[in-house]
Automatic annotation (TrEMBL):
NCBIfam families: PRK05571.1, rpiB_lacA_lacB. PANTHER family: DNA DAMAGE-REPAIR_TOLERATION PROTEIN DRT102, RIBOSE-5-PHOSPHATE ISOMERASE B. The keyword Metal-binding does not apply. GO terms for molecular function: intramolecular oxidoreductase activity, interconverting aldoses and ketoses. Keywords: Isomerase. It comes from the Bacteria. This is Ribose 5-phosphate isomerase B. Belongs to the LacAB/RpiB family. One of its GO terms (biological process) is carbohydrate metabolic process. D-ribulose 5-phosphate binds at residues 8-9, 66-70, 99, 109, 132, 136.
Length: 142
């Protein structure tokens, strides 16, 4: 799978660890930054990743920050990006299966790297259920 990934300084360590781990699993990872731990504003990195998801340049997006909340907000401002906020496997499963999320936000200050890997693995493996959820997704995207 081709996956976009982006973070600010507060999510940088998790971004780097996830990027390397995903590559070992055979995924192609496109890094939209940031590229070091120097203080930076997350919209400049998160928006390009969300835009790439919407344009189909990557199949899924992963955005990271201190809490993940601001990153989810920025990603969701890009029309067509449905970014779920996840802090455990259940939230990752539900945002994929019920909300057809094409992007996920994770907070480095909220979850350890082991949990972040579990979240990402669940997010990538879970299909959208469709059915009763389709009208909701259509309403979100309208």
């Amino acid at each position: 799978m081709k996956i976009g990934i982006a973070s600010d300084h507060a999510g940088f360590a998790h971004k780097e660890a996830l990027r390397a781990w995903l590559a070992t699993l055979g995924h192609e990872v496109v890094d939209y930054g940031c590229f070091d731990e120097a203080r930076t504003d997350y919209p400049q990195w998160i928006r390009p990743c969300a835009e790439a998801v919407v344009k189909g340049e990557v199949e899924r997006g992963i955005v990271l920050g201190g809490s993940g909340n601001g990153e989810a907000i920025v990603a969701n401002r890009v029309r067509g990006c449905r970014c779920g906020y996840a802090f455990n496997q259940e939230t990752a499963f539900l945002t994929r299966s019920h909300n057809d999320a094409n992007c996920i936000a994770i907070g480095q200050r909220i979850v350890d790297i082991g949990t972040a890997k579990e979240i990402v693995q669940t997010f990538l493996a879970t299909p959208f259920e469709g059915g009763r959820h389709i009208p909701r997704i259509e309403a979100i995207d309208a």
